[in-house]
Amino acid sequence: MRIIDEAVLEDLALGAAVLGTGGGGDPYIGKLMARQAIRDYGPVELYTLDELDDDDLVVPTAMMGAPTVMVEKMPNGDDIVNAFQSVGKYIGKPIKATMSIEAGGLNSVVPIYCAARLGVPMVDCDGMGRAFPELQMVTHTIHGISSTPFAMSDERGNTVLMETISNLWTETFARSVTVNMGAMAMIALYAATAAQLREAAIPGTITLAEEIGKTVRRARLEEAEPVETIRRSVGGFRIFKGKIGDVQRRTEAGFAKGDAFIDGIDEYAGQRLQLSFQNEHLAARIDGEFRVTVPDLLAVLDVDTGEPITTEGLRYGFRVAIIAIPCAEKWRSPKGLELVGPAYFGYDTDYVPVEETYKPQA
Amino acid sequence: MRIGIDVGGTNTDAVLMDGAAVLSATKTPTTANVSEGIATALRRVIADSGIDTAAIDGVMIGTTHFTNAVVERKHLTPTACIRLGLPATVCLPPMVDWPDDLREIVGGNAHLAHGGHEFDGREISAYQPEEVRAIAGKIRDAGLTAVAISSVFSPVNATFEEQSAEIVREVIPGANITLSSEIGRIGLLERENAAIMNSCLRQLAARTVDGFKAALDELAIDAPFYISQNDGTLMNADFAKEYPVLTFASGPTNSMRGAAFLSGLKDAIVVDVGGTTTDIGVLQHGFPRVAALAVDIGGVRTNFRMPDTYSIGLGGGSIISPHPLKVGPQSVGYELTEKALVFGGDILTATDVIVAGGSEDIGDKSAVADLNAEMVAAAQARIMEMIAIAVDRMKTSATPVPVIVVGGGSILVTGAIEGASEIIKPQHFPVANAIGAAIAQVGGECDRIFSLAELSREQALEQAKAEASERAFNAGAAAASIEIVDVEEVPLAYLPGNATRIMVKAVGDLLGG
Question: Which of B141, B173, B203 is the last residue before a domain boundary?
Fold first, then answer.
């Protein structure tokens, strides 16, 4: 067990932006909520999965909806507590802890608010090891853990509880209810025991995010090469360095999609990388050939500062370094690839793990 | 004729302009009482040109005074905040993200009430006038008269803010009230922060603007005067008393506008080379391109539209180490005239390299005569490469664009810049800020989320343009001169009904200016 205090929170939010692979929502509001709760109610205990008893029940908490709305209509705070407690009430057993369902972006820090307010611990794991756009896209789904009983609460005190036949249906219904609630809701879902999570969750991701954040912060202070430092800290691969040329965007079914074309510089001169995104960076083609795709992570970083660049932030003239990070092993199973592989997002290619395409880099 | 004045932290600059001609220009130290420095500068430009003060049509003043007040925590009036949005937003009350010292000075008097809207215009909860009245009573009893009012999604619907203001005025006669919808954009905390800072600054603004007026009266100038805003447009003196917060960051904007004017270009890259850093900005339709990111003022996050500038550690004082070749980011800064080789010092700077290269003759040329010619050439090439990369980073497409070079360190630009169609080094570049103030127009903005399920894209754009034009008119623009200078559409993820954020900016010439 260790403690999440304000200093840890800062690093965690910074690292979560790298794991957000260009999406996942701006952690700023989530970080403020968590910070305020830590100030008001004290720091949060972070347990590893091994420190829990087999039967301990863990319920992840998160925010669902439009990041644009969250910066305007901030949550009440009771809403997230209501969602969390409703799931416990429905199951009829005490809940031991909460966790993050998505270590990349905003939802890495949202559960800290809930944990601080209720004095429950948080568990050092998540269901993605990155950010993904839909709620069935978690390793829990691979292992047959249901997203229901699913609770979503608004600031008015409304809570909607669901039982569904599949996690995809939960996504479908939840999307509609979110709109009724004002395009934003606080949710609690994927209740599971510690024993189940040892199989199904991705362990250590909160610590990983914190370590990445710490690395970036130190590299900036020391003016060391932040990009290389980040790459080494995540065990990633250099795949490209270049200048963003054309950026094409379109909106389809509520998702912001598009492609950025990046012209190589230095050792990549003469090559062209096509970066495809849908809320997150999803696939990279070099000179027309797929080199890295989901579920592996693509981090687009400012060449000088190592600052992660979001899909909205891609702009002509930026000089970027692209690193690929191997995804959690669970995503590489047939079931995992069915959920979040290149085919699900409409890319006509087979998934090849990044470390098979690229040689190990020191 | 117009007079432009830039009141900076160190210098107060003034220019007298007749149409496009600069008749006289001056630089004087900024005084503790800002008006004295302004009076001195005015006296000089008028005396230098010998004109009759009756010929002056307008005086335009750009000032960092209000920004500095927040940064230095001086002259701030304790201010209460009422936010309408219950039961939402409770977990992050007003001023939650402020530095502790500033929150204490401002009083930390924050209240939440029912009201607010959803993104699509529905009410979050019913507005309760009696609740607001009770809060206003508490604020009055605390001895406060300055109040900021915010409401969730007030850029979409500001009714609740307006109704609350009426009640506060009834309870606290003469209250100084700022509505968040009058100042900021989507982003509740940032918009609310700006509204609170605005009410905090109003007493100071009234004193300062009256001081400006007194300085003009002293010189028998009875022309109207205006203050520059952060977007490069003007507000009249009365409006400036009401909205001092809108002057934040007007300095860099004026400098870029001045560069545009001096060069005669509306679309270009501006490279401002100083002693330690070089700032690169983009002119679009004669205005600086604005940054998309949040900006901190004195530790408080706001969403003002600041010029999008990119800074690199390169200037006239940049220190050069020859083996291996490294230019900056360390700099001798303001000590250039003591430490550089050509000024008898012992540090190799970018200025020394330029003099050694033969394109400039500054200080003692013999002090750099022995420098290795290859190293000098390599350093000059490196400087140009740094500028070229920074310029390219700020461009929006690969098409070559003109580059305007201003600032004291502009001697560093010695050759062609890759991607630049031409390089212009205009006259009068040291007073570009004051010129930017002198030539400013007035403007208005619209920034809202439209649902394109109900409106066609064209209708939404028309509506946004009409709103922006109306605001420009209200700010004092001559109706016939109003034009739309910027349109930005951002489709929003996860929102139904093809929700799109549309930002439009309109500007026009000053009525009678």
Answer: B203
Contact B90 A256 (CB under 8 A): no
Q: In this complex, is the C-beta atom of A76 within 8 Å of any C-beta atom belonging to chain B?
A: yes
- The answer to whether position B453 is within a domain reads yes
Based on its alpha-carbon atoms, the radius of gyration of chain B, rounded to whole angstroms, reads 25
Beta carbons of A182 and B97 less than 8 Å apart: no
- What's the rounded Cα separation, in Å, for the pair B469 and B472? 5
Chain A interface disruption, residue of B180, B293, B495, B502, most A CBs within 10 A: B495
| Residues paired with residue A118 on neighbouring β-strands, in sequence order | none
* Amino acid of residue B14: A
Average pLDDT, consecutive stretches of 10 residues, N- to C-terminus, chain A (362 residues): 95 92 86 95 97 97 87 94 97 97 94 97 97 94 97 97 96 92 94 97 96 87 81 92 85 77 92 93 96 96 84 81 95 96 94 92 72
Considering only the beta carbons, identify the residue of A254, A316, A317 that sits closest to B494.
A254
Given a contact cutoff of 8 angstroms between Cβ atoms, the answer to whether A57 and A193 are in contact is: yes
User: pLDDT per residue over A268-295, tens digit each?
Assistant: 999 999 999 988 999 999 999 999 999 9
> Quick check: is B387 in a domain?
no
- Which domain-ending residue is among B203, B232, B252? B203
Q: Torsion over CA of B416, B421, B426 and B430, rounded to 10 degrees?
A: -70
The identity of residue B374, as a single letter, is E
The 10s digit of each residue's pLDDT in A68-123 is 788 899 999 999 999 999 999 999 999 999 999 999 989 999 999 999 999 999 99
Residues near B376 by beta carbon (within 8 Å), at least 6 away in sequence:
B353, B356, B357
Structure tokens at B134: 């009770």
Domain that holds residue B474: 441-508
Task: Domain count for chain B, please give it.
Answer: 2
Q: Which domains, ranges and CATH numbers included, belong to chain A?
A: 2-205 (3.40.1610.10), 231-357 (2.40.390)
Give the separation between CA B424 and CA B405, rounded to whole angstroms: 6
Which of A53-62, B68-77, B366-375 shows the highest mean pLDDT? A53-62
Q: What is the DSSP string of A61-72?
A: EEEEE-HHHHTT
Q: Do B9 and B15 meet the contact criterion of CB atoms below 8 Å apart?
A: no
CA–CA separation, A190 and A87 (whole Å):
10
DSSP calls for A82-106 = HHHHHHHHHHTS---BEE-S--SSG
Top pLDDT among B35 and B131 is at B131
| Of B90, B494, B498, Cβ closest to residue A66 | B494
Q: Please give the full DSSP string across B22-68, using - where no structure is assigned.
A: EEEEEEEEPPSSHHHHHHHHHHHHHHHHT--GGG--EEEEEE-HHHH
Tokens for B380? 């000059």
SS3 content of chain B, % helix, strand, coil (to 5): 40, 30, 35
Predicted local confidence at residue B196, as pLDDT: 97
- CATH number, domain of B106, equals 3.40.50
Beta carbons of A66 and B87 less than 8 Å apart: no
pLDDT digits (tens, 9 = 90+) for B274-307: 777 788 999 887 888 877 666 778 889 887 767 8
Q: Is the predicted pLDDT of residue B48 greater than 60, yes or no? A: yes
pLDDT confidence tier of residue B513, bands split at 50, 70 and 90: very low
The 10 Å Cβ neighbour count of residue B282 is 23
